[in-house]
Design goal:
Blueprint (H helix, E strand, L loop, with lengths): L1 H5 L7 H17 L1 H10 L25 E5 L2 E4 L4 E4 L2 H4 L8 H13 L10 H12 L3 E5 L2 H16 L3 E5 L12 E6 L2 E6 L6 H4 L2 E4 L5 H8 L4 E6 L12 H14 L2 E5 L11 H6 L5 E5 L9 E5 L1 H8 L26 H17 L2 H23 L6 E4 L2 E4 L3 H7 L5 H12 L2 E2 L5 E2 L6 H20 L6
Parallel strand pairs: 3-15, 5-8, 5-9, 9-10, 10-11
Antiparallel strand pairs: 1-2, 2-3, 4-12, 6-7, 11-12, 13-14, 14-16
Helix pairs in contact: 2-16, 5-13, 6-13, 7-12, 14-17, 16-17
The chain binds pyridoxal-5'-phosphate.
Length: 470
Amino acid sequence: MRTIQNQAAENLILRQKQYLETLIERYNQRTKTSKQIAQTYRQFLADNKSFVNFNLTLKEVFYPIVAKSSLGSKIWDVDGNEYIDFIMGFGINLFGHNPQFIKEALIAQLEQGIQIGPQAEFIGEVAKLIYEFTGMERVAFSNTGTEAVMTAIRLARTATGRSKIALFSDSYHGHYDGTLAQVKMINGNLQTVPIAPGILQNFVEDVLVLNYGNPQSLELIKHHAQELAAVLVEPVQTRRLDLQPQVLLQELKQLTKESGIILIFDEMVTGFRIHPGGAQAWFGVEADIATYGKIVGGGMPIGIIAGKANYMDGIDGGMWNYGDTSYPQGKTTFFAGTFCKHPLAIAAAKAVLQHLKTQGVTLQEKLNQKTLQFIETLNTYFKKEELPIQMVNFGSVFGSAFSKSDEAAEDSQPSIVFDLLYYHLLDRGIMLRGQGGFLSTAHTDEDIRRVIWAVQDSVEEVRKAGFLPH
Ligand SMILES: Cc1ncc(COP(=O)(O)O)c(C=O)c1O
């Protein structure tokens, strides 16, 4: 399979070429308005948003599907095609698209106006609800997950007076310069360097990038214990869903506690999804600070920084009362944002949290179970057909076990097989996020049956064309 993947376009065998031409023509015809929009506006629109990598062989199908409307598990594009959506807003839409209870909350808020400056009406209730779900004592609001992570790190550095943070390779924490670090071998030495041009070395100088799942990482944390302000963890990485290291997380908790290091859980994806109390409740590990976003904003942009009171006091100096001599005494850092506590985001968050509260933990339990069955059905099929594909899931997030590191080790070109399957599935009305996606409560059994059929059908076609072994 590898040899076939590595072939350049001109080396494709005739059967593969013919197959590609047919697929491209059919797909272009079906989604012609999306393609036209991409071409017309590329000159003006700088846009790196795509769910597969640019691949010269598949250049003619490299454009985003332009969405027109959505409801429940479905999206309709500008050409009138219907898709079962598994991107689900990159994990935002736990209840599917445009659920009635969120729509009503947003309309009600729009009727009242979007007044930014004075306090948002429901802000206190939302903060308290987040406390009830997560056990995190105090809560602050930003606009994105990236900002939430940036603030969590700043709070940790403020509280400890230390500069270094440790994070793990293959994790994603958004696009704050201070987390965009990687380890590279340079002149025989392992060095921490920025992941892309434009990010200064200074920004990542104090970042320690460790290997997730590897017990040696704990030794490195011990070694740097006195310099570390925080360890930042994505408890289950969306890029490595198979890695669910409960013991390592428990050991990390113990180690950070002993060393006065702040343990930050980035729960952007796991929060409210794997369990009402997120990955912390799932693994039984309590973080000092946790960041949330996605689901809780109900489709509106939001970021949440929540944590133990003594760390969160870095935002406002801490608790005080009227009518006595108390005042905010804690050491504070800088925190701001014009759009923080946006009334629409807060109204949607209130609706989401109230809905989750009413539904209880069975909502997540049912969805996790449904996803597991879905993945098992796919894997049984792949195994029966002796195909080199395996799917994995963490609760209602699923993806292929073909990890980024496997890819980097053997081949710098992403697999054309997965790209082909991706386009095939789009052609069959299935919208994935790369090689995986998110299940929502709006996905029906019929949706699942349709996707399983589409996967089998797509695999057969890709195989017939000679891209997969027989
Ligand atoms: C684990 C994690 N942290 C942080 C972020 C960044 O959030 P945002 O895209 O809202 O800035 C993401 C986004 O996908 C994420 O998955």
